[in-house]
Design goal:
The protein has two domains: 198 residues, Rhomboid-like fold, CATH 1.20.1540.10; 57 residues, no CATH class. It is built from 13 helices and two strands; from the N terminus they run αααααααββαααααα. It has a two-stranded antiparallel sheet. A hairpin with a 3-residue loop joins strand 1 and strand 2.
Length: 289
């Protein structure tokens, strides 16, 4: 918005990527040099026996682990997290994004654990959260065309809503025809975890992101009831609403910086209509200069 405005904080998406890369390196170091790769899996990976033993934190920590022998799985996860995460982050802000990421991870872990409750399998990877981000992004930008490289060669343009529908359909088929029948998916995918993450993403967009349910709750009246003549005097003496003088360049820059800081901390979706209109007017005025 402003050429001289710079974000002074590292994105939470970058921090998540760094944490996953660091965990992958530690897994390989422990496995190849010390032969104790299972130490991390025992304390951080998700499995039903671990949950029964009280390792409830594994519902969240399993997303940081990946197969040490499958670098492509890690790369695909990080690419999806980077491109989808930064788009969703711009709408939610860092705090809400971290909460959403954690909720999708936990939701995917719960669905997987419920499906494999009688098994002894193990789950790791952030695919559940990445699939959830795909659904959230498709809800935010359903018709925005994106270009994918099919087989890393052929460019294909597709709308996010169709990509999300395809992901739901594929994982639903894999869940019904493989996991429900206690069979292993051909690619070793945890379809139930994907579905859980996507369900949490849709629930967030549908009932949380733009929800007005808090306004429907009854507010407890704590103020003292004033006489009618006092209310009339108060209403007539109400102060005028604050307005930014956009004609003054210094005030304009200060207001734009404040709005940009709000976008950085809470996301673009937190702006009021007046703030969005101020950005549009500021863009026009600054472009003339």
């Amino acid at each position: 918005m402003r050429d001289d405005y710079q974000q002074d904080k590292t994105s939470v998406v970058v921090w998540l990527i760094c944490a996953m890369v660091a965990a992958f390196l530690v897994q390989n170091i422990l496995g190849r040099w010390f032969g104790s790769e299972s130490v991390l899996e025992h304390y951080l990976a998700l499995s039903v026996p671990h949950l029964l033993a009280g390792h409830v934190w594994t519902l969240l920590t399993y997303c940081f682990l990946h197969s040490p022998s499958n670098l492509l799985d890690l790369l695909f996860t990080l690419i999806g997290l980077f491109f989808l995460g930064r788009e969703v982050l711009a709408q939610t802000g860092p705090r809400r994004f971290l909460g959403l990421f954690a909720a999708m991870t936990i939701g995917g872990g719960l669905c997987w654990a419920a499906t494999h409750w009688r098994g002894d399998g193990i789950l790791f990877g952030a695919a559940a959260a990445v699939y959830g981000l795909l659904v959230v992004f498709a809800c935010f930008q359903p018709n925005r065309p994106i270009t994918l490289l099919l087989f890393f060669i052929l460019p294909v343009s597709i709308k996010p809503k169709y990509l999300a529908f395809a992901a739901v359909f594929i994982d639903l088929c894999g869940f019904l025809f493989y996991e429900v029948l206690q069979q292993t998916s051909p690619f070793g995918l945890a379809h139930s975890a994907h579905l859980g993450g996507m369900a949490v993403g849709w629930i967030y967009y549908r009932f949380v992101h733009n929800a007005q349910w808090r306004q429907l709750l009854p507010r407890r009246r704590t103020e003292i009831e004033l006489p009618g003549w006092v209310k009339k005097q108060q209403s007539s003496a109400a102060p005028a609403p604050y307005q930014v003088n956009l004609t003054h360049r210094d005030n304009l820059r200060a207001e734009v910086d404040r709005i940009l800081d709000k976008i950085n901390s809470r996301g673009f979706g937190a702006l009021t209509p007046e703030e969005k209109r101020t950005l549009d007017e500021a863009r026009d005025l600054l472009s003339k200069h």
